[in-house]
Design brief:
Blueprint: E1 8-12, E2 18-20, H1 23-29, E3 32-37, E4 43-46, H2 48-59, H3 66-78, E5 80-83, E6 89-91, H4 94-100, E7 105-111, E8 114-119, H5 120-128, H6 133-139
Antiparallel strand pairs: 1-7, 2-6, 3-4, 3-5, 4-8, 7-8
């Protein structure tokens, strides 16, 4: 089994701010995860191991830089550790829901090392205004 998250899933959030983690993704999360702000007004779900690795990388950055401290503060200060319940759900805090503009309908995207959780309308809007295939190919020059 791969240790990468892939696929796109549509679901919704319930009245108790719970979302269902797709079953294929649950296998990699092993019952626990971290949820934090993503960079594109989405939420990122991390495995515990990936979260710890991310925090280690951030620890290695120069703490004398105010921008780095602000980023670390924003990321870790708003992150939550979640246990996945018996029905495959996690609870999203009001603060994280507000940040991502989540109202009801969601898109959950496997994005390599993290799972992205998007408000469905925002996801559609962002993708309609996304970069062209040529712009993406230019950014990836040398990788393929």
């Amino acid at each position: 089994m791969s240790d990468r998250f892939v696929g796109k899933y549509y679901n919704s959030i319930d009245q108790k701010n719970r979302i269902i983690v797709p079953s294929k993704h649950r296998e990699l999360l092993k019952g626990k995860c971290f949820v934090a702000k993503g960079l594109d007004k989405c939420l990122n779900i991390y495995t515990v191991e990936r979260w710890e690795a991310q925090m280690e990388k951030l620890d290695s950055l120069p703490q004398s830089d105010k921008r780095i401290r602000a980023f670390i503060r924003s990321l870790s200060g708003n992150a939550v550790e979640c246990n996945i319940d018996s029905q495959g759900r996690i609870v999203i805090t009001d603060e994280l829901m507000e940040y991502a503009g989540i109202t009801k309908e969601l898109v959950t995207i496997g994005s390599n090392k993290v799972i992205e959780v998007w408000d469905r309308n925002l996801f559609t809007e962002v993708n309609e205004n996304a970069y062209s295939e040529e712009e993406i190919a230019e950014a990836l020059t040398g990788l393929y």
